[in-house]
Amino acid sequence: MDTALTPAAQVIVSIIPIVGIVFGAIIVFFALLWRHHENKLRIKTNSYKPINFNWMAFTLLLGMCLTGVGLVLTAMFALLEGKSFALLGGLIPLSIGVMLVAFYKLTVGNKPDEKD
């Protein structure tokens, strides 16, 4: 049984991801544009409050998540592939996660007291 796709089917199959990415980018663009116009109008009416985002907690959470994922991927790639370039798939998120946790540990003691 021949499972080869016809040329027309190959074109359609290759266009589907491209169309999905383009539509996703258009949706993100208009969402950002809408948010921008909303912020401009809030600034004009004096009802704008900037978002207070806790970057330190985000850094710690992201570092812990990347460290955990990197450890698991490194262990699995080391067991399945041995020493190969596939091991980088686990070592890269592991090293980024360790650096983010180290950044958090180094800056949490140096953070000035915030008084509102």
Report the C-alpha radius of gyration, rounded.
23 Å
Q: What ranges have pLDDT less than 50 throughout 5 or more consecutive residues? A: none
Find the count of extended strands (DSSP E, 2+ residues).
Answer: 0
Integer tally of domains: 2
Q: How helix-rich are the residues, as a percent range?
A: over 70%
How do the SSEs run, as a string of H and E?
HHH
Assembly type: single chain
Give structural notes.
The protein is an all-alpha fold and 116 residues long. The chain folds into two domains: 1-52; 55-108. It has helices at 7-44, 55-81, 88-108. It is flat. The N and C termini lie far apart (73 Å). The mean pLDDT is 90.
What attributes characterize this protein structure?
about 120 residues, about 75% helix, about 0% strand
Nutshell version of this structure?
The protein has 116 residues and is an all-alpha fold. It contains 3 helices and no strands. α2 runs antiparallel to α3.
Give the helices and strands, then pairings.
Layout lengths: L6 H38 L10 H27 L6 H21 L8
Helix pairs in contact: 2-3
